[in-house]
């Protein structure tokens, strides 16, 4: 089984790797510390059989990375592993296609059992966590579908747009010409069904997550 652990905290990536290695789950594990690395791994080696994904990844806006992966690989399960465990966040993650939601403070037995259940085909799991009655809006689901249609490079352009970077700044960061960024931006606008940078930011804003209430939730 191929598994990608996508989290920007190296200690937690290592902890999840040790958890899998110490269990009876036979996994070939790769690591990604940002969305760009996740895209690169998927492009190079194909979609993993299991993705363990942190919501607060560099290059992601709320549920955007989850929506992109699920939209492109609906048969490959994603388990969100996050310290941000508010009930509405858990519900929205499940609505956006996550097979399960685990708190980073879960015990190893709980995590291992949840991973086994997901690999056995179970979905909608959130052991020990509350889940809100109101979930993702239809508008948010539409935006997630649109983001799933973006190429990895277009996704990066959209993410940098949300961060407030200008076309020339995005071009510099990606090492391409500004004309290339303008072409990508045109496609991003078309797929999102918007006509301006402001409208694009507002659309993607439907996927954002409310700030954590405590410092521990921001890990």
TrEMBL record:
Domain of life per record: Bacteria
Pfam families: GerE, Response_reg
PROSITE patterns assigned: HTH_LUXR_2 (PS50043), RESPONSE_REGULATORY (PS50110)
Phosphoprotein keyword on record: yes
Keyword Transmembrane helix: no
GO biological process: phosphorelay signal transduction system; regulation of DNA-templated transcription
Positions of the Response regulatory domain: 2-119
GO molecular function, one term: DNA binding
Every HTH luxR-type domain range: 143-208
Modified residues (4-aspartylphosphate): 54
Protein's name according to its UniProt entry: Two component transcriptional regulator, LuxR family
Organism field: Congregibacter litoralis KT71
Lineage: Bacteria, Pseudomonadati, Pseudomonadota, Gammaproteobacteria, Cellvibrionales
